[in-house]
Target: RBR-type E3 ubiquitin transferase
Amino acid sequence: MLAWILEFAPPKILGSIPSSKLFKKVVVDWESAIYESSIVLRQKIYCPYKNCSLLLVNDGLEGVTSCECPSCHRLFCAQCEVPWHADKKCRQFQKSKKVLGEKQLDKKLAQLAKTEMWQKCPRCSIHVEKTLGCDFMKCRFIIFINFTYKSI
Model:
């Protein structure tokens, strides 16, 4: 894609690009966004560990539960999309989640989000956490939605 842009972009546009590193980063980010948007939502699985969150594709293999993230090399459950629950089968894990009750889980999540100063994406309502960098955020589920992380 980079070669195509360099070949066909008008000289005016090429001359206005501040640096080749920045340009390459924009192209890489654009390609990543295109790739991510091409995957059907129900096939997307993200590594559940907050310092990783690598996008993986669920290729539809039934019965596959234990999955190792190729980036952080930690185990997680591909069915439940949570860190690996070795002591319980998926059904047991799901039942134990239901036993706690949705409202109780929502309250605990809200309290954790408040304690950790997480914020919700205004579009998809997924909690986000700023780990470093500027306050500019991109929604990973709804392409082209950006927002500013409000520092508290």
User: Anything to note?
Assistant: Helices lie at 2-8, 11-15, 20-38, 90-100, 102-116. The chain has a mean pLDDT of 76. The CA atoms of residues 80 and 90 lie 7 Å apart.
